[in-house]
C-alpha cells in the first residue's frame, strides 16, 4: 500500500505542487521588481556617476565650466526627466572672483520619443533659485571671449534639441564691486518663457529692484541659427510704478552681434505719449549705453528723496545719495519731448543732452519751456571720488514763479514773472552736506506778482504792539508786488545779500543780511516803508518811512520779527522825527493815534504805541524774548498786550508827542 502511494499519481501531485511553489516565488520576485521599479521611476534613480560626464560635456560644448555639487537623478515617470541640484556655472578664464551663476536646482522634462530618436524634445526646463553674480567695473577693458570646441562627430548638436518652455522662480541678480564695497540686488525674479508651434517666443516675468516692482512681457520669433546678426522683430511691454508714471509698450528690430545689442526702428508709447528712436548697448565688460529718443510726452516719477524735498519746511535729509552707480556704466543720451514731467514739475518743450563717462555726468538743457518762460543751463555731477561734486549753471527768463517753486520745492508763497541767473557749486554725500557746502552766486528778480498768505503792510503795523513770532500767515492775505529782487553771494552755505528790494502798491522794503542754507535760518535787517496810496511808488510824498530798521532772524519757517533798537540809539533826533511821522501810516482810520481820531488823545495814543514798540525792540535786542529756538519766546496772544515794564517808556513817549 505504501508503494502505491508513490505511484505515478503521487509524483504527478508532487510535480504540480512544486510548480505552484515556483510560480509563487517567481511571481513574488516580479512583484518586488515592479514595486522597486515603480518607486525608482517615481522618485528618480540616483546616477551620481553621470555628474562628471555632464560637466565635461557642457564645458566641451559651451566653453563654460559646470560644477554639480548636489545630487543628479533620472526619473522615467510620469515622463523622463533629469534633475540636478547645487549647480554652478562660470567662465574658466574669468579674472573676477565671484562672477558666476549658481542654481539651487534645475530639472529638464522630456518626451520618451525624443530620447529614442536621439533628438531631445524637452517639454520644460525648471530653474529654481538661480543667483547670477555680475561684477561692476569702473573702466572698460577687453574681455577674452571663451571659445567652444566643436562637438565630436556622431554626437547630437545642442541645436538639435527642442525646448518648449523655461520656467525660472525666485531668481536674483547680484551686482558687486569688491574694491568699492558695493553690492546691489534685483530680487524676486520670476520668468516664464514658452515657444509656440509658430516658433515664436513669449516671455513674461516680474522682479523687484530695491523697493520698485517691475513687470515685463516680450514676444519675438526665434532667430535662424544659420543667419547670425539677423534683425529680430521684438515687442515689449514694461510696468515700473516706482520709476515711470505710466506703462511702456514698444516694438523694435534687434540685432545681436557678439556683446553688442542694436535696437533700431524703436517706437512705442509711455501712457498716452508716443516715442521713437534708437538704442545701442555694449555689454562687454563695463556696459556702454547710447539712447536717442523723441517723445510726445514723457513722465518720470519722483524719487523718494525728491518727494521728501518737496516739503520746504522739512529739514535737509542726511541720507546718503546713491550716486556711486554712475561709475559702472558709460552712456550718451539725447532726449527731446513736447512735454516732459518729473514728479509734479512740468516742462514743455524739452531738449536734453547728457553724457556719462568714468563717473562724470554732464547734462545740458537747451531752451526748455518752463511755465511760460525759458530755461537754459548745465548740470555736472562728478561721482568718481568718495565725495560727489555738483556744479549747476542756469538762466531762467519769464518763468511763472508760483508753479515752478511749488512743483520743485514745495514753496507756494511767491508768484510773479521770474528772471534768475544761477552759478553754484557744492559737494557732499547728502542733502544736508550739499546745502551746507554750497558756494557761488544767485541773482533773482520777481515782477508783477504777489506774496501769498502774507500782508506785509499789516505786519509792519503789528510791530507797534510787540515782537512778531513767525510770518503771520493767514488764508486770504496777500501782498501785491511790482518787483522783488535780490542778489546773493554764497560761501559754504552762507548766502549774503545787501540789495533786497520789494516794491508794491502799498509797501516798500529794502535791506540785506544772511541766509544760512545749511541750518535754514535768517539774519536779515530790512527797512520797510508804507505807502498811503494804491497808485504805487510814483508819489514819494505819500511814502511814510517806518524809521527803525526791522530785524528778521531765526528759522526761515518761523522767524522773529522786531524793531532794531540800534536805529534809535544811533540817531535819536532823526528817529524821533520819523517816529512822529510814523503815526500817519501805521494806524488805519479810526484807530488810536490816527489823524482821524478826535481829541487831544491821538498823540498820546501814538506816543504810547511807539513807546511800546521801542520797548519791544530793546527787549528783543537784549534777548529777553528768548532766542529763535527758545521755548520762552512770547506767545502770539501776548504780543498785543503791552508789557508792564513798558509803561515808563510809554509815559515818556506820551509826553514827547503831547508837547
Give the topology, please:
Blueprint: H1 2-5, H2 8-43, E1 45-46, H3 51-62, E2 65-68, E3 72-75, E4 81-90, E5 100-110, H4 112-117, E6 121-135, E7 162-163, E8 165-177, E9 182-195, E10 200-209, E11 212-221, E12 232-239, E13 248-257, E14 260-270, E15 273-282, E16 288-300, H5 304-309, E17 330-342, E18 345-347, E19 350-357, E20 360-370, E21 373-382, E22 389-400, H6 401-409, E23 414-427, H7 431-436, E24 439-452, H8 456-462, E25 468-469, E26 478-491, E27 494-503, E28 507-516, E29 521-531, E30 543-545, E31 550-555, E32 560-563, H9 566-570, H10 572-586, H11 601-621, H12 647-657
Helix pairs in contact: 11-12
Would you mind describing this structure in some detail?
With 659 residues, the chain is α+β, with helices and mostly antiparallel strands. Helix content is 21%, strand content 44%. The chain contains 12 helices and 32 strands. The chain has a 32-stranded mixed sheet that branches. A hairpin with a 2-residue loop joins strand 17 (330-342) and strand 18. Helix 11 packs across helix 12 (647-657). The chain starts with a helix and ends with a helix. Mean pLDDT is 77; it is low at 1-6, 145-159, 584-600, 624-646 and 652-659.
Number of helical segments with 4 or more residues: 12
Residues in β-strands, percent: 35-45%
In terms of structural class, how would the helical and strand content be classed?
A: alpha+beta
Overall shape: it is: elongated
Short synopsis of the structure:
The chain contains twelve helices and 32 strands. The chain is of the alpha+beta class and 659 residues long.
